[in-house]
Structures are given as C-alpha cells and as structure tokens.
Design brief:
heterodimer, A: 319 residues, alpha+beta, Ubiquitin-like (UB roll), Fumarate Reductase Iron-sulfur Protein, Chain B, domain 2, 3 domains, five-stranded mixed sheet, 15 helices, 7 strands, 10% strand, B: 294 residues, alpha/beta, Glutathione S-transferase Yfyf (Class Pi), Chain A, domain 2, Rossmann fold, 2 domains, four-stranded parallel sheet, 8 strands, binds iron/sulfur cluster, binds FE2/S2 (inorganic) cluster
Chain lengths: 319, 294
C-alpha cells in the first residue's frame, strides 16, 4: 500500500537554510511503522533525508519525532494507526530542542538537564562488602520510572519548557525522582532542596503532555507530583508552590469549595506587599467587570460542609 | 434531558458570566438542570498532588450524590471534567479501592456504586442534544467571525480517561461546534496546550508567556475571538491578557468567549444575559463584525 507523508526538511548547509515541508509517497505494508516509511524514502526516493534510528523496536530511544503534531517514537507508530483512511501524515522534528538536520534534533540540552539532577546513586556511609540489600517493596515503585529510554519525546512536548528553557523538564525530573526515592540514596534531602529552586518541580504546569506522549509509561508528571509531596514532607514549605498546595487544601476544607481570591493572597503571602500590589491592576479590572467573588470571610461554605471536613479529618496527612 | 449540574468553584466565583450563560443556553435548549449545591470542589488536581485518596473520596461523594438522584453529572469546566473522569476511572476499575473509599463515605450515610456518568456541556451538546437539534436553534448568523478553539489540558489528557476510545470525535468537539454555529475555525497548534493558569501565582512570568504565546498566535492567524470550555483557561487568557500583552509590541486584544457565550450568541440571545460585558477583553468589536451590538 501507499502512504503520503509531509516531512519537514531543513539543511543547515544549504545555500539558503530555511525549513520547508516536502510531500512524499512511500510504499509500505499494512504492518509498517512510520519509521519504515521514512526509511523507504531515504532508501528509494531521497537519500539526503536525515532520520535517526537504531533498534527499530522502541528500545534505543533514538527515533523521536513529531507525528501529526504530537511527539512519539517513529518506530512504535503504525502507519495505519495515524492514517487509517489514507490521510497524509505530517512528520516533524521534536520540539524544544535545536534541529541539526531534517528530523534529527540535537539532544545536548536534554542530556545537560539529565546531568543537572546528579543521575547516579549517592549512598550514605561506607560501601557495603557485597551488594546493597533492600526489601523488594522499597524498589517496585521505581520500576516504571526506570523504564525511561531517554528518547526526549516528553521534553519535546512539554508546555513549560516551551516558554522557559531553564525548566529542568519532565525526563530529568523523573530521573531525579528515581534517585530521590531510592532507599539506598543518602542525598535525598539535598536533592529535594535543589529541586525546589527556580526551574524545578514547581514550574511544571501539570498539563499532562508528558504523561500522554511518553512511549514507556514513565508518567513524568506523576513523578513530579510525588517529588512535590516529598519536598513538602521534608520541610520545604516556604515556596509559592508549597503554599499554593497548602492554601488550596485549606480552602476546600473550610468551605467545601475554592475561594480563588484567598488562594491567591495566601499563596503570595499576606505580607508580600510588592507582589500583592503587582496583582492589584488585574483585581481592579475584575472588580470593574463585576467578576471578582467576595473574599473570605464572606465566601459562603457549601451546605453539608461538615461532611467534607470529616472526610478531610479522616484522610488528611498533615505535613 | 436532565442533569445534575456541577458548576465548579470558578463559575461560582471568578467567572460568573459562565454560570449565567450556561443557565441561559440550557434553558433555551430545553436541558433541565438540578444544581448540586452541596457538591465539593473536585480538588482540581492540586489536592491530588498531596493526597490522591482524599481527592478521590471527595469526588466519590459527589458521584454518590448524583447517583442518589439518578442523574448524570454535567460539568462546565475542563479541569473539573478531567479530574472527575480520572477519579471515576480509578474507582470503577478497582472494586477493592472503591470499597475502601465507600467505607469512608458510609460514615456520611453515602455509597457510590460506580454508575454516575460525568459529561462536559461540550460533549452533551454534540452527543445528547445532537447536531441536528442544535442547528435548529442557531438563528443568528455569526458568519464572518473567525474563532480559535482552546480546550484546556484536562479535556484532552489523559486520553484514556476521557472516553476517546468510544468517542474519538470528542477530540475535535470544539472545532465541530464552532463550525456548527456558522463561524470559521482558526486552527492553531496552541489549542491543546496549557493556558498557564496552574502556575499563575507560582511563576507568573512563565504563566503570562503562555497567555501571550497562545492568544498572540491565534491573533496572528487572523482570529477575531477564541472560545474555551474551561473557566480556568478563561481567567488566565482573558483576565491576564492585558498584562501579558505587554510582551508583544502590537498588543493582543483577542476576546475570549466561554463556550455557552458563543453558542448563546448564535442562538440569538441577548449579550447582557450572556454576561458578555463581564469579559475583561471586550468582545464588542468582534461582535460588530458579526452584526451583533452590545
Ligand atoms: S506536566 Fe509538567 S513536566 Fe509534563 S509536559 Fe506538562 S509542564 Fe512539562
Ligand atoms: S520519560 Fe518517557 S518520553 Fe521522556 S525520555 Fe523517558 S521514555 Fe522518553
Ligand atoms: S529506533 Fe530505537 S526507539 Fe525507535
């Protein structure tokens, strides 16, 4: 069968190096992957097409690209799954990293961020004579995250990285969790401290892109949430992020629903006058448009709020 | 057609115009609503950050309240919808977990059996009211208006909790509705991205960059307005747009409509009743283009 592809081309060595889209038709089988189609093109149509791959079995992590706007592994994506009715498939290089040529991106920023989280074990005390012995249960929760193949697919589509290249990003934060939560590691506290800094765990917007696109089920965002919980439990509570989580929870507990005005004020801090004032024009605009809800204590609780409070009482882990 | 109406905290707080326009549109379409006044916040994913079981229990309580009156839940917020869908999936897939949570609910005289459906107004319009019936209600042409969709993360992700398997058309529901009311769809890659609201008070700079990027991109593609089924996206894209606009030399000035505001306009409703004056970025100019005065 035939499949139509629209491929983003870019050659830095061309006389006039601008990116453009090129349409191709490839000859494939019903079971072929998008990578097979690209390799057909390179083999029989245009040998200048740059594609990176190795294992062709979703193991090596080298064939990350964007297919129809979403990052994924080209070798793991069947042609029929993205073009069931013969639609044209768009293939572009991954996002949030520089393009070297055509579909090949520079992974250096990716590796730099992974290095930034000290991705190795830093055990406490003397090395044991034999192996480290830990109960299996203390390691099973790390299985999923250890499945990461460093493909960069999550990084490509991360919405926080898109606006701030300083953000550590999903893959490296998942890696940070892998070590911060390892029972053999002795530097958890220091790791968590560093992750609270600008560019760390609190800059994630919880958009779930990384969870959606990761081909290995690593669920980086869930790891970031686990890191937040760990950081707060370890006593790092004086951040906008931690105060936000705390104030949100208090608001729901008190009234059964959220009081946005109080949430903002509590997150920023009652005494952080400059920042509160910087929010004032927005609040004023909202008032003029009769939008702003009354701040507490006028925010009425829901009927039966005591039910909600009792549920909190039973399940809340106080930090 | 009757639903247990879950407006969510923001429609009852910072975006009263969403609540108003929802009630108007539903009345116009003959959708009966019974508001869930004692329902709690879903936790919006924030509560779940600290304590997933607590979040799931609060949601199970809401589901049990709807189950008791035998009605499916209608949401009007992408975040509420997503968080409820995820919780419902966990509860329905794991009988042991559900039993554990029911133990807590039992002390409040409640039990969740796992039967409550949770549907966003956007899905209800296309799936329950239906395209043909909707078309009959579209009496005012807003042809000539170019509208960009903006979904809100949790209406699209995680896809396995949102019923896309059985209903793949949900992934384009917003575009379908824009076309149905006679406007032109301005498709752009930012439609599925994050509005930046969750980090507004944590990292305002990044949050506003997201606002400027998405609204600016849509504007550059010729959009007259943007429509969203999420009040949190609305708070950021509309409320913080004047502040974010400072990042662009040409400004932005893109009105952001709530889903029922757009539909209400096409249904010929009064702009006052749809709360359009409460939008921070005024839709006046855009509406004039469609021949609507406000
Ligand atoms: S959830 Fe967080 S880390 Fe994952 S893609 Fe979104 S912003 Fe990035
Ligand atoms: S977390 Fe998933 S998407 Fe990200 S690098 Fe690892 S395997 Fe790839
Ligand atoms: S080629 Fe190795 S993961 Fe695709």
């Amino acid at each position: 069968m035939q499949v139509k592809l629209k491929v983003r081309r870019y050659n830095p060595e061309a006389e006039n190096p601008v990116a453009y889209q090129q349409e191709f038709t490839a000859e494939v089988e019903a079971y072929s992957s998008v990578l097979d189609a690209l390799m057909y093109l390179r083999e029989y149509v245009d040998d200048s097409l740059a594609v990176r791959c190795s294992c062709r079995g979703a193991i090596c992590g080298s064939c990350g690209v964007r297919i129809n706007g979403q990052a994924t592994l080209a070798c793991k994506t069947k042609v029929v799954s993205v073009a069931p009715h013969g639609e044209t498939i768009t293939v572009e290089p991954m996002g949030n990293m520089p393009v070297l040529k055509d579909l090949v991106t520079d992974m250096k920023p990716f590796w730099d961020k992974v290095r930034q989280v000290t991705p190795w074990l830093q055990p406490e005390g003397l090395e044991p004579e034999g192996e480290y012995v830990v109960p299996p249960e203390s390691m099973t929760h790390l299985n999923g995250v250890m499945g990461c193949i460093m493909c960069g697919v999550c990084v490509s589509d991360c919405t926080a990285l898109e606006v701030d290249s300083n953000f550590i990003g999903p893959a490296a934060l998942a890696k940070a969790y892998r070590f911060a939560a390892d029972p053999r590691d002795g530097e958890s506290q220091e790791r968590l401290r560093a992750l609270n800094e600008y560019g760390g765990i609190w800059d994630c917007t919880r958009c779930m892109e990384c969870v959606e696109v990761c081909p290995k089920g690593v669920a980086p965002m869930d790891r970031i949430m686990a890191l937040r919980e760990k950081a707060m439990a370890a006593g790092f509570t004086n951040t906008y992020g931690a105060r936000h989580a705390e104030a949100f929870s208090d608001s729901v507990k008190e009234g059964g629903r959220l009081d946005e005005t109080m949430l903002a004020i509590r997150t920023i801090g009652f005494f952080n006058v400059p920042k509160l004032l910087s929010m004032a024009p927005v609040a004023l605009r909202a008032l003029v448009h009769r939008k702003l809800p009354m701040p507490s204590p006028f925010h009425a609780p829901i009927p039966d709020v005591h039910q909600v409070q009792r549920i909190f009482g039973r399940l809340e882990k106080k930090l | 057609m009757k639903y247990a109406f879950f407006p969510g905290c923001v429609a009852r707080g910072g975006t009263p115009e969403l609540y108003m326009s929802t009630v108007q549109v539903c009345r116009g379409l003959g959708i009966e609503l019974e508001e869930m006044v004692s329902a709690s916040c879903t936790g919006a994913g924030v509560l779940q950050e600290k304590n997933r079981k607590l979040g799931d229990t609060l949601n199970a309580r809401n589901f049990a309240l709807a189950e008791r009156i035998g009605l499916p839940i209608m949401t009007i917020c992408s975040t509420c919808q997503g968080v409820m869908s995820q919780a419902n999936k966990r509860l329905r897939e794991d009988a042991g977990y559900l039993a554990e949570i029911n133990e807590v609910l039992a002390e409040e005289g409640l039990e969740y059996k796992g039967t409550t459906e949770v549907k966003h107004l956007l899905w209800i319009l296309l799936e329950d009211v239906g395209v043909e019936a909707l078309k009959r209600h579209v009496v005012r042409s807003i042809k000539g208006l170019r509208i960009a969709p903006f979904y809100g993360c949790y209406m699209l992700r995680p896809s396995d909790a949102l019923g896309f398997g059985e209903r793949p058309e949900r992934q384009h529901a917003l575009e379908t509705l824009i076309a149905l009311v006679g406007a032109e769809v301005v498709d752009f890659p930012g439609k599925s991205r994050c509005c930046g609201f969750p980090i507004l008070t944590i990292n305002e700079r990044n949050s506003l960059r997201m606002v400027a990027k998405h609204t600016g991109e849509a504007k550059d593609l010729g959009a007259d307005a943007m429509v969203t089924p999420c009040p949190l996206c609305h708070l950021n894209l509309d409320g913080f747009q004047p502040k974010a606009a400072k990042q662009r030399p040409t400004g932005i000035d893109l009105p952001i409509l709530h889903l029922p505001q757009m539909l209400g306009l096409a249904m010929g409703m009064d702009t006052e009743a749809l709360g359009l004056k409460r939008n921070i970025v005024s839709p006046k100019k855009a509406l004039e283009k469609a021949g609507v005065q406000m």
